[in-house]
Amino acid sequence: MFTIGDFAAFGQVSARMLRHYDALGLLRPAVVDEATGYRFYSADQFSRLNRIVALKHLGFSLQQVGEIVDAKLSAEQLRGMLRLRHAQLEDELARGTARLTSVEARLRLIEREGHMPTDDVVLKRIAPIRVAELSAISPSYDGADIGPVLQPLFGQLFERLGAAGISPCGSPVAYYEDAGNETIRVHAAVPVDTGTAADVDLTELPELSQAATIVHQGDMMEAERSMQTLARWIEDNGYRSHGYAREVTLQFDPDNPANWVHEFQITVTRPS
Amino acid sequence: MFTIGDFAAFGQVSARMLRHYDALGLLRPAVVDEATGYRFYSADQFSRLNRIVALKHLGFSLQQVGEIVDAKLSAEQLRGMLRLRHAQLEDELARGTARLTSVEARLRLIEREGHMPTDDVVLKRIAPIRVAELSAISPSYDGADIGPVLQPLFGQLFERLGAAGISPCGSPVAYYEDAGNETIRVHAAVPVDTGTAADVDLTELPELSQAATIVHQGDMMEAERSMQTLARWIEDNGYRSHGYAREVTLQFDPDNPANWVHEFQITVTRPS
DNA sequence: GTTGACCTTGACACCGTGTCAAGGCCGAAG
DNA sequence: CTTCGGCCTTGACACGGTGTCAAGGTCAAC
Q: What does the mean pLDDT of chain B come to?
């Protein structure tokens, strides 16, 4: 017979946890002194304790451990739990390595530049969106060429939507497609949830299951800076960009481009 | 200006968390309507939110995130935190892969045997222990040879300790050393915390920084079964045993060996 | 003016574990 | 026999990040 302290010390668990397991019915002491409430454990309870510890060590919750050790599960169910856990662990590991590369990227960045960036890239999923849009051709990818095409396009779009009594339900989005001959097709889109108008295109922007995004503040003439940050992040963190890019207008001030706020979104994948 | 819901949706955070960040002072809304308490966020707060999200994603706690984004840290301190985090992550990863191999080992075991073992191996650290001991030579490693040597040795040991007025402060431990010519030296030891007696050896059993242990119930004649389980576990889980083994007697019943309980301990290392 | 979607605060829950406090029990030393 | 130190008891609170619920206020659209 062991007192709770001895049992705990030998079993490499805290007495607190043994009481907890008792409360959960996971591991009851062999004997409880009726008068004093003292718990006493027998030597052969070490094997149960070890089962619990081992399972906990695999990352099962105490509840799952309880189900497993009390053999409420068939071998088949057990296999199922283990396989599930296996999948979860692989997932965690993948996330863990991604974290690690991110931290390493940060370290490199700080070594290189002596400080941390103030604009931060985050990875997100972009849900599909129904939009109304107009498009046009721009002679090049240069910001100086795109702006003059895009601005009036948005102007027209809002005008036509207003005329049709449709109001946007989200922030305007611009995106681009290669149109050959060094030119690109510029799309000005705005989310709508319903309604239709003859003179705008209704379409659905597809989901971006993994997009690297960065918030750019200020004039689009300086967008290059943010795009570079984004590109470097993608490379440093072991992703590969997939070309498809969007710009979401979060704040627009016709009088002062310095107040503009955009989010750039680029789909990325992790080559493994 | 965004309401909390919009800001949350776009930033891929829950509104609950935005309120939480507000409470922590981590991200205060740009405007709070005095009359209604409504929070409003400005578009340029997305960059702060993104910094927070990105840092959280590296696994920093909200408190650490706060310190980092509020630039309370010098670049040097920042480097320090990142390096620390880097080390932690590597640790976690190592533990994660160990877990994964353990789960895989379990799966193999269950596929092989159709059920889970009831005796479970756990890895522990064994602290160094001061012991009083006697030793003798046994002709072989065979349990049938060792028992008859070990038993009287323990008898003598306890007798001499009793005579010296010393009482043990832990469970008896047996361990073995190769003594050449196929023979082994058998040690019978028992932990003591103080006192000395001329006719026993006082020594310290060294720490075992990583030992695979299993609890064996019953007669030592069947110890082989548990030892095999242990050996297989060690192999399946990617460790290598290091020869050095101990047997701790957790329960001893002179009348009925079926009631005996021992723990076997073998030092292991993880070759990587 | 009604309705439905959104906002507010405050609270409780999860889980595994540490820690603290107030008090009881036990064994050894005086 | 008393006292003391070390163990035991129960009960509580805390951590952290997040979900969820309830009760009530606000806002915009119809």
A: 92
Q: Does the beta-carbon distance from B124 to A46 stay under 8 Å?
A: no
Q: How many CB pairs under 8 A join A and B?
A: 152
Q: How far is A90 from chain B (nearest CA, A)?
A: 7
Q: Is the pLDDT of residue A164 over 90?
A: no
Question: How far is Cα B249 from Cα B257, in angstroms, rounded to an integer?
Answer: 12
- A4 in contact with nucleic chain C (CB within 7 A): no
pLDDT of residue B163: 84
What's the rounded Cα separation, in Å, for the pair B129 and B32? 63
> Which of B109, B44, B55, B261 shows the shortest CA–CA distance to A82?
B109
Q: β-strand A184-191 against A173-178: which pairing, if any?
A: antiparallel
**pLDDT per position as a tens digit, B2-18:** 999 999 999 999 999 99
Q: Is-contact A170 A191, C-beta < 8 A?
A: yes
Q: What is the Cα–Cα distance from B244 to B248, expressed in whole angstroms? A: 13
Q: How many of the other CB atoms lie within 10 Å of CB of A129?
A: 21
- Residue B5 CB lies within 7 Å of the nucleic strand C: yes
B38 touches strand C (CB under 7 A): yes
Q: Give me the pLDDT at residue B258, please.
A: 94
Type of residue found at A176: Y
Q: What pLDDT digit, counting tens, does each position of B156-206 carry?
A: 999 888 888 888 888 999 999 988 888 999 999 999 887 677 688 999 999
| Residues of A in Cβ contact (< 8 Å) with B50 | 119-122, 213-215
Nearest residue to D19 via alpha carbon and C1'? B16
| E strand or H helix at A11 | helix A4-11
Q: What's the confidence (pLDDT) of residue A239?
A: 95
Distance, CA of B16 to C1' of D21, in Å = 13
Mutate which of B106, B121, B265 to disrupt the A interface (most A C-beta within 10 Å)? B106
Q: What is the token pair recorded at B30?
A: 């740009």
> Tokens in use for A266?
């680029």
How far is it, in rounded angstroms, from Cα A251 to Cα B2?
A: 10
Greatest C-alpha distance within chain B: 92
